[in-house]
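Annotators were shown the component list below and the corresponding predicted structure, then asked to write short factual statements about the assembly.
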Amino acid sequence: GAGVSQSPSNKVTEKGKDVELRCDPISGHTALYWYRQSLGQGLEFLIYFQGNSAPDKSGLPSDRFSAERTGGSVSTLTIQRTQQEDSAVYLCASSQLGATGELFFGEGSRLTVL
Amino acid sequence: SQQGEEDPQALSIQEGENATMNCSYKTSINNLQWYRQNSGRGLVHLILIRSNEREKHSGRLRVTLDTSKKSSSLLITASRAADTASYFCALRREGTPLVFGKGTRLSVIA
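Structure shown to annotators:
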């Protein structure tokens, strides 16, 4: 597809379980972002991949959160030992290197931790 | 804080009226962007204004930037019910990820 694709769109899990969220960016986009949005709130930056540079992990809230980007394309955000406060919508976005910096967002993955 | 702060937090207007949302920030920026989010959906880019620009237009949207006051405004003219959404400003600084504010929730009543 032409847009950013995220899966799953909805995920319900039990406290303590691990979850993986996937993001397929727009082809050719070298920058990829993960944000988290709690109900009715703004976007909280999590992690940023830019080309072959080391990712900016400064927004990850704890060491239970990790992300990787394979082959400069698909990214997976992993949350280990999920907690109820991890419940949120996880948004992925991509952009072109050296362009205006406009981000293209996916529809998000809604995570509910019971 | 590195993020912008939108004002007001919520705004309710009648269809046909203009809606104005403001964003204030504290750091120097390369550009400032406005995004829209419909309920339960991803964000959509609306308009970008560079630090050396003062005003930009796109359809019914008008964005201003005052770098001396570190503030920006988004004006939606002749609002429609379909404009109901949350609007976010986002700050771009060199070499840093795009940082979003908490947003303004706009309700346009038909």
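Statements collected:
1. The interface with chain A takes residues 3, 30-31, 33, 35, 41-45, 48, 88, 90, 92, 96-103 of chain B (CB under 8 Å).
2. DSSP finds no helices and eleven strands in chain B.
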